[in-house]
Design brief:
With 98 residues, the protein is mainly α. The chain has one domain. Helix content is 71%, strand content 0%. It has 3 helices and no strands. Helix 2 runs antiparallel to helix 3.
Length: 98
Amino acid sequence: MSGARAVGDSHEASDRPAPRLHGQPEEPLTYEAASARVEEIIRRLDSGEASLKETLELVSEGKGLIELCARELSEVGDALQELRLDELVSRLESEASR
C-alpha cells in the first residue's frame, strides 16, 4: 500500500511530473484530456464492475488527474487576474495622462 500513498504524500505539486494516460506516450496531459479521463474513471467506478484492486488504481489515477486539473485552473485564474491588473494599470495611466 505504501506505493499508492507515495503519489499523494508530496504537498509540492510542482515536484511531481504531470500525470499521463496509462499506456500513452510520455507527453504531459492537457486539461481537456485529463478531464475526459476523469469522466471515464467515474463511469467505470459507477458501473460497479471494477475489482477492488482496479478501484484502488482508478481512484489513485483520478486523484492525480483531478490535482492536475485543479493546478491548470489555478494557473489560468492567476493569469486572468494578472491580465485584469495590467488592464487596470493601463486604464489608470491613460486617465492620469489626460
